[in-house]
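Minutes, project check-in
Item: structure for the 250-residue chain
Input as provided by the requester:
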Amino acid sequence: MEKFDVFIPSVPKDFNKLLFCIEQIKENVIGYDEIYVASPEPMPKEYRQDGVNYFTDKEAFNMEPYRFKWRHNWLYQMYMKMFQNVTKNEWYMTIDSDVMILKQLPFFENDKPIQWLGRDQNHQPYFKFQEEILGIGRIYNHSFINDMNFFSKKLTRYMIQSTGMNFKQFLEKSVAITNEDCHPGEPEMYGNYVYKNYPDLYVYKHMEIDFSGRKQDNLTDQRWTAEEIKRAINNYKNSHYHMIMLHSWT
C-alpha cells in the first residue's frame, strides 16, 4: 500500500468541528501518513493539535480567491483541494472539516486506490465547465461529490497537460469561463478525467452519509457546540452510516 496524507481545508465557523473531524480521522482512516490543515488565517492555538501540520490557504495554494467572479471562496477552496502543494506524498485524501467519519475506512485495496462515493448528484454547471476546459462531460454513471475525495498529484498534473495548457494558463482559463452557469467542481473534474483515461485504476465503493445543517448569521458563527457535535457522533456511531456532515451556512 502506498503512503497517503490527509488534507483538510477549514474556516473559522468550522474550527470547533475540526477538532472532532481530526479525532474521527485518527480513529477510522486506515493507513494515513500525515494530517495537513489549511485555513484563511493562521490557526488559533486553541484549535491546534499535536502532530497536525497547519498552513494558511495561501501557503497551500497561492492564488487570489477574488479572481473568481462568482462564489470566490467556495471555488478557491475547490481548487486548493485539487492543487494544494503542502502534502508530501503523491496520494492524499481531502475532507471538509465539518465531516465526521464514523467507521473504519481503507483507501487502498490490493494496492489499488479506493474512491468512496456518496449520493448521486447531477449539477450541470460542473459538467459544462469541464466540457469547456477538459473536453469531457459526465463519463462515470455516478457523482464523485462526497466532501471526501482521494487524489493523485501525478494525475492532476496529467489532467492539466491533457488540455495543452500549462498550470498558469489553466488557471487563467478557469477564471475566465467561470460564472453561475459554468463553474468547477473538483470531484467531478478529477473523477471523470481519471475514469475516462484510467478506468481500471480505482476501486469505487459506495458509502452511506447523513446530512445535518444549520443557518448562521455571519461567516464566523459557530452554530454547533462541542456538546452537540459529541452527541451527534455518539448517536450515529452504531448506525449504518459511514459519515455524518454537520453543515452551517449563511
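Outcome recorded: The two ends are 41 Å apart (CA to CA).
No further action items on this chain.
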